[in-house]
Amino acid sequence: MKRWLPILVATTAVLLPNAVVFSQDKAEDTAKKVEEKELSTSEQITKFISDGQLTKADKLIDGLEQDSKQTDRFRTQLATAFMRKRDYAGATAQYEAQLQAEMAKEKFSAARIASLVGTLRAYMPRANRADEIMAMVEKASELVSSKVDKSKASADMESLLRLNVVKSSLLRSDDQVDEANAILAADFKLTQELHATEGSDISARLYSAAMRNLMPSEADMNVRSEMLAEHQALTSKLAEAGDTEMAVAFVQAALSEVGRSYRTEPAAAEATLITLKEFVDHHAENKKIAARLTPYSRSIASYESRLESSKKLLAMIGKQAPAMDADVNWVGVEQPMDTKGKVVLLDFWALWCGPCINTFPHLKHLTEEYGDQGFQVVGVTRYYNYTWDEEAERAVRGDRSADPNPEVENEVLQKFMASHGLTHPTVVVSGESTMHKDFGVSGIPHVALLDQQGRIQMVKVGSGEANAQAIESKIKELLGLTESSATSAGE
Fold first, then answer.
1. CA atoms within 13 A on the CB side of 345
2. pTM for the complete prediction?
3. Helix, strand or coil for residue 12?
């Protein structure tokens, strides 16, 4: 026994630490299991969301009572977590589950349904489910409509108006403009009649909301101005009674109207801005309303600046165009182009400008259609220190702190224009050039259309089909290719 004792002692010394470790691991595992068992379902969901284990959280939420406020809260938190991971399908599923649960209730909330539909309208396209939106909206509208008594104004009717706005927006995006306008016009007529009968605060809210929804679809500026004035009268009365949201509603409606008219009808836009500022000043002493309106001060100032630019542009129409810089680099032609006696479209652009690139197909069309009839497109841009990535076949931003290399960037511009199939030339002005300022350029794309005598006949800012059609129509007129121009020439 004495002979084996040292061996037993040595063996114990080797095994004992491992035994202690095994014992500790087992204890920790047991403690962890106890801790997990002690966590409530709500605590586990919160922990899973915090740890990024979103699928586990989702499964636990599915087991909760579906019509509880707690379930909605967890689904909203989970949707936010999915969005942080750019998992739009996951986020959409959470809001959709909330909508289905709300619509399944015997006493559903129309306001809640309208809010969730609005959220899903924004999320579903990102989840590649845009084609399912209309069916969802129609189902929600049908349900809410079944609850609404259209013979009297109510909060539920306000929710129905919100759903109809989403529906009309979808129809408009599908080029069903008349159908979209018909929905908004019907809402306007209904709420107008209700307010004429009731004259209550809720009927005024509904009527002003329907008016605000319909206003953008009205083409006649005078009619829009009348609607805005009536809208102001309604919302002002409600704001005086302490309805802060109505004060915000008028400011939003007025800013939208300025946005639609400042380029084409600057006088009307200026009048609306004056009314808007007077409205804001009138409510300045009401701290609650003033706090809500303060964030819009920047938008008001921005429109004032844009309005001044528009007035300057309109004042240029019919006048001789400012002289083009003498010292410029021409890209796309071997020597300066002689545009004397031609109808010229000066296109101010930049290779980093997405909206500018969107106009390229139209510029190509104009060149192909009218290039041999006395028409010429001339691009105008600056050096922005770009280089060309041969492998990716695209322009990339270079070192911003370095001075541009005209020789290198001219080559970049040539490759960039060729990659988009552009055949018209571009002039590149220096940083000291006043050409952009002389033509009133405050944003791009910006085009100035000059007649054969070098007079400015049209200025347009921005891309879009409306601008494209207006420009082409004016070009045809100046070239004598329309019936009206041919008649004028004959006379």
1. 31
2. 0.68
3. helix
